[in-house]
Specification:
The structure is a single chain. With 186 residues, this protein is α/β, with parallel strands linked by helices. Helix content is 35%, strand content 25%. The N and C termini lie far apart (55 Å).
């Protein structure tokens, strides 16, 4: 029985290692590598520093800068169409945006375009009803600016442009609501 458990654990570890390697999961990914996929739990940090600046094209080709939203609380979320936790999290993000947009809340959904299939982005946006700005990080500018460590990754920025919270992993609706309330001083 002990031998069976050992063989099972070694086999499970080996299969997991192969799958993660095949998916390009790397700690401290560089822009030319795939980001880690965080399935659950994630990690949160409190930053209290100026949010990195960037300018990216949206899915309609319009140039959008983080500075365009100065004075409004916002959530910057990195995602990809192939990322299972991103797919699980997206309905929660859409619901939070719909709930808080009248209060000036902005959600910038940044696709990790260097790691995604460009043809899959528009159908993903339509399928999830993403009515907020969807930006394409086609050369890794935002990825580098935010030092992306995994997908999904979320950055909560207050109206003064201060990065208040960072979360790597899929967020729950309750967690999203708590962070939005904190951005609004509630």
């Amino acid at each position: 029985m002990v031998h069976f458990r050992s063989v099972f654990l070694v086999g499970a570890f080996s299969i997991t290692s192969v799958v993660l390697t095949a998916c390009g999961v790397m700690a401290n990914s560089a822009p030319s590598e795939s980001p880690a996929i965080v399935q659950s739990g994630g990690s949160v940090s409190t930053d209290n520093q100026s949010a990195p600046s960037f300018t990216l094209k949206d899915i309609d080709g319009k140039m959008v800068s983080l500075a365009d939203y100065r004075g409004r609380p916002l959530l910057v979320n990195f995602w990809a169409t192939w990322c299972v936790p991103c797919r699980a999290e997206m309905p929660h993000l859409v619901a939070a945006y719909e709930k808080h947009k009248a209060d000036g809340f902005v959600l910038l959904a940044i696709n990790a375009t260097t790691q995604d299939d460009a043809a899959a982005i528009q159908p993903f946006v339509k399928a999830f009803g993403m009515m907020f700005p969807v930006l394409l990080d086609s050369d890794g500018v935002a990825w580098r600016a935010f030092r992306l460590r995994g997908l999904p990754s979320s950055y909560f920025v207050n109206a003064q442009g201060i990065l208040r919270f960072t979360y790597v992993g899929a967020m729950t609706p309750e967690f999203i609501e708590e962070r939005i309330a904190a951005l609004n001083g509630r």
